[in-house]
Specification:
Helices cover 14% and strands 51% of the residues. The strands form three sheets. Strands 7, 8, 9, 10, 11, 12, 13, 14, 15, 18, 19, 20, 21 and 22 form a 14-stranded antiparallel beta sheet that branches. The protein contains six helices and 22 strands.
Amino acid sequence: MYRKVVLVAAIALGSASAQAALFDVTLSWTNGAGSAPYNFSFNDAEEAIDVVDLDFIKKQWGNFGATQADTALAEIKFRGVPIQVHYTTDPSGQESFRLKIDALNIDKNFSGEDALDDLKDYLVEKGEHEILTQINKAAVEKTSFDPVAGNPSSLMSTMVDNIYFLTNSSITGTNRQDIDNQWDLGLRYSSYTTADNQDVINYNLPLAYTFKLDWFPGHRLQFRMPMNYTTINEDAKSYSLQLGFAWTIPLIEGLEITPAIDYGAAGSAEILTVGVLRALSLTTRYDFSLLGQNFTLNNSLVKIDSERIEYEDDDDEDPVTYAIDYDLSNKAMTNGLAWHIALPWQLATQVFVRDTRYSGDALYSDQVTEYGVNFGWSGSAATNTQFFVGASYQSHAKEEFDGARMNIGLTF
């Protein structure tokens, strides 16, 4: 099963043309006179696996390889990189495979009794080529819905958002150095259609607990565990979980810095991909008053790197080590300004703008600017108890992601 999973991840990259499904598969028999190609579309990689199979090909063309040397071609189109697998068979039973990934300058042949196993091992074995790593890295640059990076619903983007917002959750501009222990709960909802007609719905649930250190006045520790759920075309689902620890250090009244470390994991059973990211961050928050109005100036710097996953198969006589990695190293800088407007009956409004820009390895989308407003109720300043609802508009480097996002938050 492991090899099956990684084979699909390797051959599941495809055309940039508009597609209604994640996997678009074309099978053709090059020597079969009058045999029309077969076309398939899927939102589940397991279904694509069943099609990219020599036994399936033989069922489509009953006399394939029966009387002469024949070649079938499987073309899987997904995520912007075309992959080809050529199947060759003859009446003697000899089978061989040719893997072509032009975008990665790969053209390799496999033959013999274990040709298919050799092909799969080549794709996932730890070694000089690291083919799967190259494909993962290409995916975050070329696909609009990779679960790990490159788009608004990916693990990297949600980690950067959560690091920024969970350190700056107050809608009132309260001097947080005086607040008590608190929980932060939230829900962010967004929906968009990508340029290649993929319908994406994303739910992000920020979750954190902050407690003050009585022996260090103004210092606070935060444990956070945001969760993320995404659906693509209502069929393919991806999940991510972030675990983080932050320490807020006051410098002067209203000014504080928060160094933090976060780990996140994302995966999708339908797309058959998984990735782990580590983020080191430093967030600065400054609450100040100007002309009788309260403002908050925020800055967040994040260094994000992918973590390598290795798996050793002990079933064979010669143990094989498989490697899964995205080989990503990126930096993200977020700058934001919030205007806090106090209203009667303990009501408050927050108007904010933030801008995030990524640098480092190539991403499908590397910049977003958000304009938003939150409206809610605020309790005592000592507890920072708040409830708010709001909306924001996001403008991305890729216009297909532009649109509104709904925000709900509760602090108690």
